[in-house]
């Protein structure tokens, strides 16, 4: 099964990942971030400072930890992770090598 093993440091809204078979894949995040119902907190990924905090999750997803501010609990904001599933990644990414 094809799995992401490394994320090359994003320098634009395109994320390049290396997979376990040595291939490189690139996902353009512009269509993702331009979706009508995308939470404003996720649009922070248009800023490279936030975008470069991407990690590989335990199921192979691309994940940004604690980026989406949710409701208040006991007066404190709760934060959720935002992720892109491996299925979405490989369906929409372009194979480079």
- Largest sheet: number of strands, sense, barrel closure: 4 strands, antiparallel
Shape: globular
Mean pLDDT: 93
In what order do the strands lie side by side in the largest sheet?
1-2-3-7
- CATH topology name, in short, is NE0471 N-terminal domain-like
Q: What is the tally of beta strands?
A: 7
Written overview of the protein:
This protein is of the alpha+beta class. It has a single domain (4-95), classed as NE0471 N-terminal domain-like (2-Layer Sandwich), CATH 3.30.2020. The chain has three helices and seven strands; from the N terminus they run βββααβββαβ. The strands form two sheets. Strands 1-2-3-7 form a four-stranded antiparallel β-sheet. It has a three-stranded antiparallel β-sheet with strand order 4-5-6. Strand 4 (55-56) and strand 5 form a beta hairpin. It is globular and about 50 Å long.
Question: Brief description of this entry?
Answer:
The chain is α+β, with helices and mostly antiparallel strands. The protein contains 3 helices and 7 strands, in the order βββααβββαβ.
Helix-strand layout with pairing:
Blueprint: E1 4-7, E2 14-19, E3 24-28, H1 30-33, H2 48-51, E4 55-56, E5 62-73, E6 76-84, H3 86-92, E7 94-95
Antiparallel strand pairs: 1-2, 2-3, 3-7, 4-5, 5-6
């Amino acid at each position: 099964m094809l799995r992401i093993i490394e994320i090359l440091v994003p320098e634009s809204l395109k994320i390049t990942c290396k997979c376990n078979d040595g291939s490189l894949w690139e996902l353009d995040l512009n269509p993702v971030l331009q979706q009508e119902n995308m939470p404003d907190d996720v649009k922070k990924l248009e800023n490279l400072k936030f975008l470069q905090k991407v990690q590989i999750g335990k199921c192979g997803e691309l994940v940004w930890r604690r980026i989406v501010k949710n409701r208040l609990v006991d007066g404190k904001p709760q934060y959720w992770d935002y992720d892109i599933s491996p299925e979405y990644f490989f369906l929409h990414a372009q194979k480079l090598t």
